Amino acid sequence: MRTIATFGADSKTVGPDTPTVVSIITPFLYPGLPASEQCSKGRAELLSISFRDFERKEREQFTDMFAASGFDGRRNIAGIILNRWGHHFIVAQPGFLFGKDGMPAPGDVLRKAPFGRIAFANTDLTGGSRHDVAMEEGERAVTQLLAAVQRLARLAVSLDHVEWGRKA
Ligand SMILES: Cc1cc2nc3c(=O)[nH]c(=O)nc-3n(C[C@H](O)[C@H](O)[C@H](O)COP(=O)(O)OP(=O)(O)OC[C@H]3O[C@@H](n4cnc5c(N)ncnc54)[C@H](O)[C@@H]3O)c2cc1C
User: Fold this and answer.
1) Which of 34, 53, 90, 137 has CA atoms 20 to 30 A from the CA of 110?
2) What integer pLDDT is reported at residue 136 of this predicted model?
3) Domain boundaries, the chain
4) What is the DSSP string of 109-138?
């Protein structure tokens, strides 16, 4: 439930009678089916249900939940905004996050060190589908690259010394 911001000089009053915004997140789950199949089936359902059906279901659901307190979904919901985007979510197959058969997890291999000039920064490698994890991963990858550049710079300086030593 999104409450009205109450900071600043113009402090709004909030209460049970104040209009408010409620976010509803709808998971599409099909117990029994493999995870990858549930994902594509859920995406297809999310995109194919009409707005009218979504709206009817939401109003009915809220009426079922709160009718005992006098709530009427047809009267008390001013409007519904439907976003047909799934939350970022990885469907990790066995072994992806924790390794398998004595082998390390792919994410651990890809995050351990850069590959030449490339360092991978992506939350999918960690399993944590959140923006703070994205920032941590970005910082980790950049730190690794900077360390690699510094190592190369030190190597170049020492090679330079060897070269000068030969010339002398
Ligand atoms: C609808 C929605 C709501 C969300 N709400 C929240 C929230 O409230 N709080 C929260 O913490 N997190 C939230 N998230 C999750 C969060 O946004 C993600 O976990 C985060 O953005 C992932 O960051 P990332 O850098 O790993 O990947 P991404 O942000 O997906 O970045 C990957 C980038 O790589 C690019 N790319 C892909 N393939 C290629 C290619 N071949 N060549 C070049 N570029 C390529 C893509 O275009 C993209 O820009 C939400 C996500 C969604 C979708």
Assistant:
1) 34
2) 97
3) 1-87, 106-167
4) HHHHS-BTTB----GGGTT--SHHHHHHHH
